[in-house]
Amino acid sequence: MADIIEDEMKHCYENLIVVDVGANLTNKKYIRDLDSVIQRAKDSGVQKIMVPGTSVKSSKEALRLTRIYPGIIYSTAGIHPHDSKSIIEEPSTWHDFEVIAGAPECVAIGPCGLDYQRDFSEPCTQKDIFERQLRLACSLQKPILIHERSAQEDVLEILSKFQPTPQIIIRGFMGTTEEALKYIQRDYYISLTGYLCKDKSDTGVRKLLEDGRLPLERLLVETDSPFMYPNTRASKLPQHVKTGLTERSLLYLHRYCTFQRNEPCSLPAIVEMIAAFMNKKPEDVGLATAFNALKLFGLSQ
């Protein structure tokens, strides 16, 4: 296993090959051309893609994709906070979810957590289903993907009940530097998306990267496709970040991705932007995030 990871890391560094730890390829926007989407991702340098399940149905579909695209697609099984009430309304589906989560191709539990920005499910219901998934992750010893919006205090309180827990990843982080540091201090991983292009605050993700407060060994990257299109033409994006983007990454981004449908092939551009904000080489960011994903989720197996 160590030799396999070492060989893959060398390949990643030499070719800026990256791992997308969150692309929603079960979305209906990919029904007609998923083969082409995956081929473009591979051609652009995206070596492996994790497809998250956000409900029992989508978790099952994500698992199906791992068997169609073995060695490229890996799945997660999660009940998103917005879908928490579905388990309460149909209790029998929980058993189906446990079976999906236990499959070897399913490499993590989640996204699960709390979202107080919207009220698709009541907070008490969200907490109940969140805790169920945490217990399942502890039982299976699989990493946990956390979705958190305006609920950090409650998320941390619930996580504190489960000690020790498997590795924890804060997915698609969009909070403040202060919030990020609370996660980093607990040795959680932080996964970033093209949200960098939208973040205009003085205390957000950009500031976190510019100040060097997010260690590479705790960083992961994802596209959250078909969402979170990285708008590299945004007026508020610093010039040094724009000039750090390569012609190759922009070719894939502008030719194949739109605000309506982002694709995994946009990931190299996201990595280059992160590198520019961190004042690091894209190759170093790509290598570190790929290594973190391979090790954390066992993707080289």
Molecular structure report:
This is Deoxyribonuclease TATDN1. The protein has 301 residues and is an alpha/beta fold. It has one domain (2-297): Alpha-Beta Barrel (TIM Barrel). It has helices spanning 2-15, 34-44, 56-68, 84-89, 93-101, 123-140, 152-159, 177-184, 205-210, 239-243, 247-256, 267-278, 282-297; strands spanning 18-20, 46-51, 73-77, 106-115, 144-149, 168-170, 189-192, 219-221. It has an eight-stranded parallel sheet, sandwiched between helices. Helix 7 links the parallel strand 5 (144-149) and strand 6. The longest helix has 18 residues, at 123-140. It is globular, with a radius of gyration of 18 Å. The termini are close together.
Low-confidence stretches: none
- What is the number of E strands? 8
Structural class: alpha/beta
**How do the SSEs run, as a string of H and E?**
HEHEHEHHEHEHEHEHEHHHH
Sum up the overall morphology in one term. Answer: globular
Largest sheet: 8 strands, parallel
- Average pLDDT value? 94
- Kindly state the percentage of residues in helix: 40-55%
Beta-strand proportion: 5-15%
Radius of gyration in whole Å, from Cα?
18 Å
Oligomer: single chain
Query: Any idea what the CATH superfamily is called?
Result: Metal-dependent hydrolases
CATH architecture: Alpha-Beta Barrel
Q: Ends: how far apart? A: 8 Å
- Provide the domain count: 1
CATH first level = Alpha Beta
Could you name the CATH topology?
TIM Barrel
Strand order across the biggest sheet?
1-2-3-4-5-6-7-8
**Number of H- or I-type helical stretches:** 13
Protein name: Deoxyribonuclease TATDN1
Organism: Aedes albopictus (Asian tiger mosquito)
Pfam family, one: TatD_DNase
Keywords: Cytoplasm, Exonuclease, Hydrolase, Magnesium, Metal-binding, Nuclease
